[in-house]
From TrEMBL:
Originating organism: Cereibacter changlensis JA139
InterPro entries listed in its UniProt record: BUG, Bug_dom1
Protein name: Tricarboxylate transporter
Gene3D superfamilies referenced in this protein's UniProt entry, alphabetically: Bordetella uptake gene, domain 1, Periplasmic binding protein-like II
Family per record: Belongs to the UPF0065 (bug) family.
Region annotation Disordered: where it falls in the sequence: 47-77
Length: 346
């Protein structure tokens, strides 16, 4: 049984509830991801403790992440689910950030994808009608420029879309609701939220998918997302519009942040001073979770066709995306200052 090694080390969570903090609102991709994993973690942690998802949204994911950094205990009963938004604020030196990824122990890294879609009110019937958006004004509901929304903002800039941004939303689920109420006309959702919430809208003729973020192969080439093989990548859309591959500083920045935001999109972390035996207990539970028949049956539909990394593999991936080329950082910071009068770092 997978729990015996953990119990032999004296780690037992019987009667000790686990707090899984998610620094975003309910219904978004991070929330769907957390609520899928929570009961499975409960099943495989020693003592089968209740794992409760606690949403702590605000400030593009920085508020809840700051609270975890300040308050989380090292007894294994406090874990945080980060997202690309938490990472982007950190990479860009956002003055609101009081956390440091190097202070955390990464247990699991879940790559994911995402799909950009538009309201059917715009008149498109498929992504092949992309040129029809050239004379349209698009409206996007955003959590903020240091959130994962930086990826679509860069993508829309690369594609030459005329896009207006409405800031102040606390999660991607808010963007979904804004689409449902026709307050905005373009949105994206990460894979789990798209499969659960947007696919039915597409089937009902209320939304039209445009593209996925794709995946990067071992040679660094962008490929179609295996979860959405019928959807083009940004690179394909750009060539459809302009007859050549994308290039330039905007595209370079897009590649950096789309890789950082989706290859290691969801991280499950413990405080860095958590004792090794507790870390190993969590890793044993996660490995058992990944073998669980319920996980194997439901994960492809809910999370998509991506391979979750655990332990040292997850740590290595996380470390590779928590650094940024200074020139790319300067370009993005200058662009945000010039276009939106937003200054993130002193």
């Amino acid at each position: 049984m997978p729990l015996r090694p953990a119990l032999a080390q004296g780690v037992d969570f019987t009667g000790k509830p686990i707090d899984l903090a998610i620094p975003f609102s309910e219904g978004g991709g991070s929330d769907v991801w957390a609520r899928f994993h929570a009961p499975l973690l409960s099943r495989h942690l020693p003592g089968q403790p209740e794992v409760t998802v606690r949403n702590d949204p605000g400030s593009g994911g920085t508020r809840g992440s700051n609270a975890f950094a300040d308050q989380a205990s090292s007894d294994g009963r406090s874990v945080l689910g980060t997202s690309g938004s938490s990472l982007f604020a950190y990479l860009l030196g956002d003055f609101r950030v009081r956390y440091d990824f190097s202070d955390w122990t990464v247990l699991m890294a879940s790559p994911t994808g995402g799909v950009v879609y538009v309201s059917s009110d715009l008149g498109l019937t498929s992504w092949r009608d992309i040129a029809d958006l050239r004379d349209k004004t698009l409206v996007f509901a955003s959590q903020g420029v240091t959130s994962l929304d930086l990826v679509p903002m860069l993508a829309f800039r690369v594609l030459g879309f005329d896009t207006q941004y409405v800031f102040g939303y606390t999660g991607r689920h808010d963007g979904l609701e804004a689409m449902r109420h026709r307050e905005v006309n373009i949105d994206y959702q990460t894979t789990s939220a798209y499969l659960r919430n947007v696919a039915p809208m597409v089937a009902a003729g209320e939304a039209v998918p445009l593209m996925s973020w794709g995946v990067v192969d071992a040679e660094g080439r962008v490929q179609r997302d295996p979860t959405f093989p019928d959807l083009p990548t940004l690179e394909e859309l750009y060539e459809q519009l302009y007859g050549k591959p994308p290039s330039g500083p905007e595209y370079d920045a897009y590649r950096v942040f789309s890789s950082a935001g989706f290859a290691a999109q969801k991280l499950l972390v413990l405080p860095g001073d958590t004792p090794p035996e507790i870390r190993e207990t969590w890793l044993e539970a996660i490995r058992a979770l990944r073998r669980d028949p319920d996980y194997l049956a439901r994960a492809p539909e809910i999370l998509g066709a991506y391979r979750t990394l655990v332990g040292d593999e997850a740590e290595k991936l996380a470390r590779s995306v928590t650094e940024i080329d200074p020139e790319t950082r300067r370009f993005v910071l200058q662009w945000l200052a010039d276009e939106y009068s937003i200054r993130l770092a002193e």
